[in-house]
Amino acid sequence: MQRTVIDQLGREVTFNYYPERIVSVVPSQTELLYDLGLDKEVVGITKFCIHPEEWFRNKERVGGTKKLDIEKIRSLKPDLIIANKEENEKEQVEELAKEFPVWISDIHNLPQAVNMMQALGQVTGMEGKANQLVEEIIQGFNDLNKATKPKRVAYFIWRDPWMSIGRDTFIHSMIQTMGWQNVLADRERYPELTLEELKTYNPELILLSSEPFPFKEQHIAEVKAVLPDVEVKLVDGEMFSWYGSRLKKAVAYLQQLAVE
Fold first, then answer.
1. 122 plus 163 within the same structural domain
2. Are residue 109 and residue 206 in the same domain, yes or no?
3. Is 142 within a domain?
4. Tell me, what CATH number does 176's domain have?
5. What is the pLDDT of residue 9?
6. How would you write 174-186 as a 3-class SS string?
7. Residues 47, 94: one domain?
8. Which end of the chain is more exposed for a tag (fewer CB within 10 A), N or C?
9. Is the dihedral of CA 8, 100, 16, 76 positive or negative?
10. Distance between CA atoms of residues 117 and 123, nearest Å
11. Closest CA to 245 of 48, 83, 56, 31
């Protein structure tokens, strides 16, 4: 039986219902599929799909999120590919969509993440589990005690060049959810700027993410050399940017940061 749904880009996607051979090319959505109980159905993941570890070790890998192995995906004969507008390359996704059903997410905030989880629950026949997960996540964020003082925060995702996050990003929405202020909220999505330039934004706290660039202790010293009076912290990037089932774990992590 075939079914047609609308994905988060407003595209019609027609696929076998229920899909039995899923390729996921987005790490946070791969983890979601695992938490929905779709073990045998998921036949391919990317090399960045590190959760759960047993899938990372044992599932067929189809390249990286930005450099998919199209031939490998073809060989897996998927009846559904799950992708993301930002994390995957448009040209590659379009090429795959000529041959296979591709469901694409587009996520900038918590409501869109919730919508994606519910939609994938419906698409995969795991609606009950998805709804339960969503309820727990929504309850968790509703109970989150926001920071009493809206700290002025800058969040770095890359070095050389230094790259931060501006408006209309999921990380920006997480910072706001905590009750903090993103000092680069007036900038484009992923602005490049020097540490000297950042001075003019007068941040109180600089967060160095664990991904995609793996910031370490030595980078704190590098930032402090330019902004000696600003607090600098290493943070778990998955808790700020993985918009699937990891949000369940993110609540406690963000809560702890907000009250420190």
1. no
2. no
3. no
4. 3.40.50.1980
5. 98
6. HHHHCCCEECCCC
7. yes
8. N
9. negative
10. 10
11. 31
Q: How do beta strands 152-158 and 60-61 pair? A: unpaired
Gap between the Cα atoms of 167 and 175, Å rounded: 11
Strand partners for 232: 206
Count structural domains, the chain: 2
Q: Which residue, chain included where needed, has tokens 């009076």?
A: 229
CA dihedral 168, 238, 56, 107 (to 10 degrees): -20
Q: Is the pLDDT of residue 260 over 90?
A: no
How far lies 49's CA from each of 45, 56, 110, 115, in Å? Answer: 6, 6, 21, 21
Query: Beta strand 102-105 with 80-84: parallel, antiparallel or unpaired?
Result: parallel
- Decide: 84 and 90 in contact? Cβ < 8 Å: no
Rounded Cα distance, 5 and 12, in Å: 6
Q: What gap in Å lies between CA 168 and CA 190, rounded to an integer?
A: 10
Question: Is there a single domain that holds both residue 78 and residue 39?
Answer: yes
Residue 194's identity, in one-letter code, is T
pTM > 0.85? yes
Q: Is residue 144 part of a domain?
A: no
Indicate the residue among 76, 100, 134 that finishes a domain.
134
Residue 95, pLDDT above cutoff 90:
yes
For residue 34, being part of any structural domain is answered with yes
> Whole domain around residue 226: which residue ranges?
152-259
Mean of the per-residue pLDDT values of the chain: 97
Q: CA-to-CA distance for 99 and 253, rounded, in angstroms?
A: 41
- C-alpha 23/C-alpha 41 separation (Å) is 9
